[in-house]
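batch job 7 of whatever, protein = DOMON domain-containing protein
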Amino acid sequence: MNGTADVAFRAPQSAAGWVAWGINTNRLSGMVGSSVFIASQDGSAAVSVLTTYLESAAPTLTNNTLKLAVPAGPAAEYSGGAYTIYATVALPGNSTVQNTV
């Protein structure tokens, strides 16, 4: 086992909206303490992924260093009325049990 997981997270949303997925490495539940991937489109319909660490319940959504390793840059796409986020993450403690938000 190499301690990583390849993840694809898909959620329905309008093209003007956004979708987020994350792993909370500090708590058993809740958003605070999560390393998060946020997919959205810009004005030219290009899809991008913002990565951030949620330090509070009212975070500033700017690119931040995550609290887990991401061996390859995340990617996302918008198709069929849904965003899909693709990421490879290093599992904290090499554990197969993680708290996703």
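notes: The chain has one domain: 4-100.
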